[in-house]
Amino acid sequence: MPAVVLIGAQWGDEGKGKATDLLGSRVDYVVKFNGGNNAGHTVVIGNEKYALHLLPSGILTPGVTPVIANGVVVDVEVLFHELNALLARGLDVSKLLISANAHVITQYHRTMDKVTERFLGRRNIGTTGRGIGPAYADKINRVGIRIQDIFDENILRQKVEGALDQKNHLLVKVYNRRAIAASEIVNELLGYAERLRPMVADTGLILNQALDAGKTVLFEGGQATMLDVDHGTYPFVTSSNATSGGAATGSGVAPNRFDRVIGIVKAYTTRVGSGPFPTELFDEWGEFLRANGFEFGTTTGRPRRCGWYDAPIARYSARVNGITDFVLTKLDVLTGLEKIQVCVAYDIDGVRVDEVPVNQTDFHHAVPIYQEFPGWTEDITGATSFDELPKNARDYVLAVEAMSGSRISAIGVGPGRDAIVVRHDLLG
Ligand code: GDP
Ligand code: IMO
Ligand code: MG
Fold first, then answer.
1. Which of 181, 197, 213 is the last residue of a domain?
2. CB-ligand 1 contact for 298 (6 Å cutoff)
C-alpha cells in the first residue's frame, strides 16, 4: 500500500495532524502538497503538544522524511521559525526536503492579503492573513517567485521587480500604503539562501523513485474539501486544491500511483472564517461543542464556528476525493449530550435536496433536515476497541457511516496519540 493520500473532508481542523502522526511510524515519507502556514495541526504526544503550520506533521516521527512539495507556498521566515522551535525541543529536522518549484510567500503577499481583506469589509473571506491567496494568485499570473529563484540573484531581482511593478501602483494609489522596495525583498530572500540550500531538491523525482523502491509515502493535505478552490464553497475557500487531486499536481506523483484516500471527518462540524455552513449552531449546543472540543484555531486563535454532523457534505467529500476510508475524530466531544442531531438532507426553499447543491445561493439557503440520535454519558476516552464503546455511541457511528459514502475505519476518542479505535487497518 505505498501511496496514501490523507485529506480533510469538511472545513478543516478535523484532526489531520493527529491522523498523520498516528501513521507516521509506518511510513517513509510524509508530503505536504498544498497550502502553506495557513494550516494549523495540533499533535499531542504524551505530555508534549506540538503546533505545526508549514511543516508536514511527519516531522515529529523519527525516520520519516518530511517533504514540502511543489504545490505548497513557503514563507521562508516562518519555515525557519518552526524548524528552530522543533530544534529547541530536541527534534531531528535534518531530513526535511523542499521542492525547488514551490512558490515563496513574501512580505508583499502578506501585505496584499491584509489590505484586500480590509477593502472587502463585510464581504471579507476571513483569511488567516498569511499571504496565501496573493502568493497563489502570483503563481497563476506567472509572476510568482519560486524557491529555486532564491539561488540566482539576477533572476530573483528581475522577478521581484516584475511582481512589484503592478502591486506598488495598487498599494499606493488604491490602498494608500507605502510602496515596497524590490531591493528590500531581494536582500531578505538572499539572506535565506545558505540555510535553505541543503533542503532544496527535485522532490517529484525523489518521491517517484521512493515509490519505485516500494517505500510508503503519505500525502498530507492542508485545509479541506469544502475549502478547496474548485470544489469548496467558493469564494469562501482557500486558494489551493485541498482535495485528493491536489496530491498529484502538488507533488509530481501521477494519479494512477495512489492506492488509498483517507478522509478525516469530525463527529460534528466546524468552520473558521466566513461562508455558508448549514448546520451551524448559535445556541447552547454550539457552545457545548466549542467548549468541549476546544474549538479555537491553532493558527489564529479565532473561536471556530460549530454545528452538527452534515452527512451530505461527507458524501460529497467521499465522491470528490475517492475516499476509501474515513477517520471519524472527536467522538468523545459528543459525550454528555442527551440528543445528537445529524443532518441527512437539506430543505432548500421548500424542496428536499439530498446532495450538496451545485448552486452557491441554494447552499446559502439550505436548512438542515435532521435525524435525532440518543447520546451517551460514559467516558469513552480510554476505549481501545469498537466493542468497548457504549451502544448509543456505536449506533451513532454506524448510522453516520451508512450515510457518508465510505467505511469508517478509525474513531478518535481523545486528543492523545493513542486515543483512537481502529476498525480496519488504514495502511493494510
Ligand atoms: P488539523 O488541522 O486537521 O490537523 O486539526 P487541528 O489540529 O487544527 O484540530 C484538531 C484538534 O482536535 C487538535 O487540537 C487535536 O489535538 C484534537 N483532536 C484530534 N483528534 C481528536 C479526538 O479524537 N478527540 C479529541 N478530543 N480531540 C482530538
Ligand atoms: P487546517 O490545515 C481551517 C480558512 C480561513 C479562511 C479561508 C481562506 O488546519 O485544517 P487563507 O488564509 O487560506 O486564504 O484563508 O480558509 N482556512 C482554514 N480553516 N483550517 C485550516 O487549515 C485553514 N486554512 C485556511 O479561515 O476562511
Ligand atoms: Mg487545523
1. 197
2. yes
DSSP E strands: which ranges in 292-338? 305-307, 309-310, 325-329
Query: Is 193 exposed, middle or buried, given 0-12, 13-18 or 19+ CB atoms closer than 10 A?
Result: middle
> Of 197, 225, 243, which residue is a domain's last?
197
**Secondary structure of residue 42 in the 3-state scheme:** strand
Ligand 2 touching residue 38 (CB < 6 A): yes
**Cα 389 to averaged position of ligand 1 atoms, centre (Å):** 20
Closest-lying ligand to the alpha carbon of 239? 2
CA 411 to ligand 1: nearest atom: 23
pLDDT tens-place values along the chain, 428 residues long: 699 999 999 999 999 999 998 899 999 999 999 999 999 999 998 899 999 999 999 999 999 999 999 999 999 999 999 999 999 999 999 999 999 999 999 999 999 999 999 999 999 999 999 999 999 999 999 999 999 999 999 999 999 999 999 999 999 999 999 999 999 999 999 999 999 999 999 999 999 999 999 999 999 999 999 999 999 999 999 999 999 999 999 999 999 999 999 999 999 999 999 999 999 999 999 999 999 999 998 878 889 999 999 999 999 999 999 999 999 999 999 999 999 999 999 999 999 999 999 999 999 999 999 999 999 999 999 999 999 999 999 999 999 999 999 999 999 999 988 899 999 999 97
Asked whether 130 lines ligand 2 (CB < 6 A), one says yes
Q: Is 333 in the pocket of ligand 1 (CB under 6 A)?
A: yes
Q: Number of structural domains, the chain?
A: 2
| DSSP assignment letter at 140 | H
Grid cell of 159 as nine digits: 522577478
pTM equals 0.97
User: For residue 287, how far is its CA from the centre of ligand 3 (angstroms)?
Assistant: 19
Domain harbouring 259, CATH code? 3.90.170.10
b vs e for 112-146, b when ≥16 Cβ sit within 10 Å of the residue's Cβ?
A: bbbbbbeeeeeeebebbebbbbbbbbbbeeebbbb
What are the catalytic residues? 13, 41
Domain of residue 303 covers 3-93+202-422
40 lines ligand 2 (CB under 6 A): yes
> Which residues have a beta carbon within 5 Å of ligand 3, which is an ion?
13, 40, 298
CA distance 243 to 225: 5
On whether residue 427 sits in a domain, the answer given is no
